[in-house]
From TrEMBL:
This is MPP superfamily phosphohydrolase. It holds the Pfam family Metallophos. InterPro entries: Calcineurin-like_PHP, Metallo-depent_PP-like, Metallophosphoesterase_sf, TAT_signal. SUPFAM superfamilies: Metallo-dependent phosphatases. GO terms for molecular function: metal ion binding; UDP-2,3-diacylglucosamine hydrolase activity. PROSITE patterns: TAT. Transmembrane segments: none annotated. The keyword Hydrolase applies. GO terms for biological process: lipid A biosynthetic process. Keywords: Hydrolase, Metal-binding. GO terms for cellular component: membrane. Residues 55-230 form the Calcineurin-like phosphoesterase domain.
Amino acid sequence: MPLITRRALLASAGAGFFVAASGGAYAGLIEPGLMLNVTEYRLTPPGWPEDLPLSIAVIADVHVCEPFVPMSRVKRIVETVNALKPDLIVHLGDHEATYRFVSARVPPNEWAAAYADLSAPLGLYTILGNHDWWHNADTIRGALDGARIRIMENEAELIEHRGRRFWLGGLGDQLAHLFDRRRRMGEDDLPATLAQIRTKDPMVMLVHEPDIFDEMPARVSLTLAGHTHGGQIYVPGVPNPFIPRDYRGRFRYGHVVEEGRHMIISGGIGMSGLPVRFGVPPEIVMVRLGNEPAVA
Ligand SMILES: [Fe+2]
């Protein structure tokens, strides 16, 4: 039997430590703190007019806090989104961070003021996420209102764009009240939101958790969701404790098509639970619906 030499043992231990340390540095610092991808989706889902181009920049799950997502990071998000020149900007909630590793809070008025610099012809709309509720929904609403950012909670709005119209809906959070592991109560009201649709114009729906997609009617051309962080730690084939079992195959990340209905799940930007990301770099999602009409 070959015997391993002491030098080889030390070398392999050193290599192991280096891999662990560099992997930790990558997952704790580089991927979550420095990376910011732009992930683009081009699609014309059922019900959306082929000749009505609409670009939507999607921000999700920023979880602003010191030291992991400080104001400098928020400003970079704003600059990145503005450089994309979208028609519409949406934020899918979880503005706040509620995990134990937060060293200091960034006052909501500060990050909300930074978002007020986001610029798009059709404006900026946001919904609230579970961590916004678990922190303090009234405080978050107050900060967003103070920055004149439109909050949607079980509301739908008819928006004019290129001489046409479309509906934008935003749901209340589905995990707003968490009593214990099994008992939870949401603030979402999908029937009341859909009841506001008075015309046949196409619709885009903003939701925080993707779970509601099972109930989303085909009337909604596209559902935009966040919340999952794409698992936050993702190694293909390796089970992920952050992702509920039901999500793993269906609702973890990306473009989901079921029974002709479309949903895009953003991997988001920040973190919850643990201050690490691995295999799911922070991202701005850029959705491009429809096509530019051909010039005669
Ligand atoms: Fe969330």
